[in-house]
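Run log, item B.
One chain of 123 residues. Sequence copied directly from the ordering sheet:
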Amino acid sequence: MKKIVFLLPLLTLLSCYDAEHNCKDFKTGKFKFEFKVNGVKKTTLFERKDGIEIETFDGKTDTSTVRWVSDCEYILQKKHPKNMAEEKAISMKILTTSKDSYTFEFGMVGSDQKQRGKVYKIE
């Protein structure tokens, strides 16, 4: 019983913890996103400024428009889609931030399927 009395205030304090959200720090700059595809590490580099995001992946560069819907959420839309899949907009939501990185959730607009990743600010 004494353990429960001790744990209750501790759990209450932990439930009040709010993740850091300094999303404005990540609206512009140069970034790096690393992920694995079939066990192989891949890296995407991108720069975001003035409503545009320029991404380089596997030696190819592509440009998307960025429309911020709140301080921590934005929509990416490819400017020059090459197929039907690229025509679909992607919803991005920054979940937490730190000094030089943020954790985000993304998925096609209108889809319930979401994935998570972590982006590092390099400039």
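Observations after the first pass:
- Residues 12 and 93 are 27 Å apart (CA to CA).
- DSSP finds two helices and eight strands in the chain.
Flagged for discussion on Thursday.
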